[in-house]
Structures are given as structure tokens and as C-alpha cells.
Amino acid sequence: MDKDALHIGQSVVFKGELGGGEDLLIEGTVEGKIELRDHVLTIGPHARIKAEILAKVVVVRGHVVGNITASEKLDIRDSGSVDGNIAAPVVSIAEGAHLRGSVDMQKPPVAASAPVPAVQAPKAEPKLEPRPAGGPVSGGPRPAGA
Predict the structure, then answer these.
(1) What CA–CA distance (Å, rounded) separates 87 from 51?
(2) pLDDT digit string (tens) for 52-61?
(3) How far apart are alpha carbons 74 and 2 in whole angstroms?
(4) Which of 15, 38, 58, 145 has the lowest tally of Cβ within 10 angstroms?
């Protein structure tokens, strides 16, 4: 967790929609919705969350009731508990952690890239015409007496 991350202390109770432009550590109680699409959300060991969560990375060490969507990674530590559906391309669940719900680990859609050029078929070798017997070869020396 970054030193500059916002910290919601253990005695804080928050109800409503919570969003921001920095990493967040929650130790208190939050009910509602938490949205940090480009940042890390850490649920501390004393936290009690009842919310829909959307974040880049979610680390759960406390108790969460609600669905969690992480665009990069979800990590449920040994003290963590989640009652809800989770969706993330990478999911880590420690031994001793609690999860009751479904897990969706689909990869996010890949951005469209430049089209790959088609493979070209090999060029056909020029066909050599058979030359008439005894005739001169064009462009080459002529046999003596021709």
C-alpha cells in the first residue's frame, strides 16, 4: 500500500457512494458502493464492508458482503471473507480465507490491434520453354557454321 493512499480509520462509518483518484485503505465500516477503477482498494482486517466494489486491484483482509469486480487482480488473504460474486482475470485466495459466491475469471477484451498482413503465396517460377534442337540460343554465342 502506497504511503499517499487515503486511509479510512477503524472508527469511521460511511454510507453512500465512495469513489476517488487514489489508492484506498479501509479499516472502518462502509455501506453502499465503492468505485476506484484505476486504483488499489485494500480492505483492512477490521473492516466491515457491505457494498458493490469496482477497482483495479482489490485486497481483502476483512469482511465484505457484496459483489467485487477487479479489472486486474483480486486477492483474498487468510483473514479475508467475501460473501458475494467475484470477477477478476486473476484471483488469489489464501488458505483459511472465506468465499461464498461465484468466481468469474474471464480475461478482459483485448484492444483491437493493427490487422496482420496476409501471407503471400510463393511466386511461381518462370516456365522455361524447350528450345528446338540445333537452333541458335538467343542472347548466347552461335555455334560455328550456323
Answers:
(1) 15
(2) 999 999 999 9
(3) 17
(4) 145
Quick check: 3 pLDDT over 90? no
Whole-angstrom Cα distance, residue 77 to residue 74? Answer: 10
C-alpha–C-alpha distance, residues 99 and 103, integer Å: 9
SS percent in the chain: helix, strand, coil, step 5:
0, 45, 55
The residues near 10 (Cβ < 8 Å, ≥ 6 apart) are 27, 28, 44, 46, 47
Distance CA 83, CA 99 (A): 6
Strands 91-93 and 98-100: unpaired
On average, the pLDDT of the chain sits at: 84
Question: What's the pLDDT tens digit per position in 4-51?
Answer: 678 899 999 999 999 999 999 999 999 999 999 999 999 999 999 999
Whether the CB-CB separation of 37 and 52 falls below 8 Å is answered with no
The closest alpha carbon to 97, from 71, 74, 70, 67, belongs to 74
Q: Specify the pTM.
A: 0.71
